[in-house]
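Narrative of accomplishments. A recurring question from our advisory board has been how the design workflow behaves on a single, concrete structure rather than in aggregate. To address it, we present the structure tokens for one chain from the evaluation set, followed by the sequence designed for it. No filtering or post-editing was applied between the two.
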């Protein structure tokens, strides 16, 4: 990544937030800042994870041309006739390439106004054969965003008072899963005063960290302090969404944030998502240092493959999957059926 002389968003010093209060993290300071600047930025990042589970990242080094190329390739895929995507239309939640509508149409119940393509990009890139431009762009985009997400993971580890490499090591990120997702939400008119159709209902992401940018049409909402807030990006920035594995490994210090996508009434909305998660065979559990007495363990260990398969095979239900691995205390409900093991 090119981190030399990073352009600064006008009037946007590092360690601050957007007009709506969404934290903004300057990656160039995290990577190239002097010791004092870095320490400040790590603290700011820690607060962003603790108070929001959601932030924007600027000066991230992913070229705008690469972002556009990725969005264009996804757009081209969505415009292909169904027979050219047929082999991926019936894919299951753990298949490395999947094209579909809704979240998981086998269990959705409601029809969500969304088309998607999902590709496993790490440890190995899987990609639909068409459009032909997709493979090359996806490979470059996956590598570039992966670097950025690993930098953030190291800084997040430090913000928890841990060694920078500790989270990566515990989750075996070197063999970790990375998924690229293209989301396409055709316009859908709501009635007057209507909030708009739901493209994707409230959920937290199953992985560690999710990176997202959109095609200039807003619609991503995050739940903050009990209220839904429309996320408006600083031009050129990415959104970063904390996922369930960050909540587990941090023993609940950082939370997987609830978010949802609304559909625009007039314009097509698109988003490109990159998610990194543990190695599918890693058993994820809280870092012991973060669960020392009097805290105790908030989550029990769960193999990421089982967790992801469960979350992806069932109706999206806010944080229902995470609740199944929460250690029950006297005043919390203990689920009768544990699905993982
Ligand atoms: O399209 C969006 O803004 C949200 C997408 C999302 O939450 C997801 O793909 O998990
Ligand atoms: Fe999501």
């Amino acid at each position: 990544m090119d981190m030399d002389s990073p352009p600064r968003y006008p009037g946007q010093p590092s360690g601050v937030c957007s007009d709506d209060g969404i934290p903004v993290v300057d990656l160039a300071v995290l990577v190239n800042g002097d010791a004092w600047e870095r320490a400040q930025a790590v603290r700011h990042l820690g607060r962003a994870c603790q108070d929001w589970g959601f932030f924007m990242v600027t000066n991230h080094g992913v070229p705008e041309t690469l972002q556009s190329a990725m969005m264009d390739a996804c757009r081209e895929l969505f415009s292909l006739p169904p027979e050219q995507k047929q082999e991926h239309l019936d894919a299951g939640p753990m298949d490395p390439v999947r094209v579909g509508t809704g979240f998981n149409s086998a269990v959705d119940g409601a029809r969500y106004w969304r088309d998607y393509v999902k590709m496993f990009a790490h440890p190995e890139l899987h990609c639909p054969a068409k459009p032909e431009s997709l493979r090359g762009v996806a490979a470059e985009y996956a590598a570039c965003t992966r670097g950025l997400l690993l930098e953030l993971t190291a800084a997040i580890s430090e913000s928890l008072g841990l060694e920078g490499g500790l989270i990566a090591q515990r989750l075996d990120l070197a063999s970790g899963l990375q998924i690229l997702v293209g989301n396409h939400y055709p316009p859908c008119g709501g009635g007057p005063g209507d909030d708009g159709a739901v493209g994707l209902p409230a959920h937290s992401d199953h992985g560690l960290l999710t990176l997202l940018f959109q095609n200039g049409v807003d619609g991503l909402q995050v739940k903050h302090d009990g209220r839904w807030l429309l996320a408006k990006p600083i031009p050129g920035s990415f959104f970063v969404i904390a996922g369930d594995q960050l909540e587990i490994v941090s023993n609940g210090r950082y939370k997987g944030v609830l978010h949802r996508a609304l559909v625009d009434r007039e314009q097509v909305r698109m988003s490109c998502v990159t998610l990194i998660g543990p190695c599918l065979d890693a058993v994820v559990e809280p870092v012991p240092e973060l669960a020392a007495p009097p805290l105790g363990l908030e989550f029990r260990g769960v193999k990421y493959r089982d967790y992801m398969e469960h979350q992806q095979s069932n109706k999206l239900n806010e944080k229902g999957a995470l609740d199944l691995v929460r250690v029950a205390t006297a005043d919390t409900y203990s689920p009768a059926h544990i699905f993982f093991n």
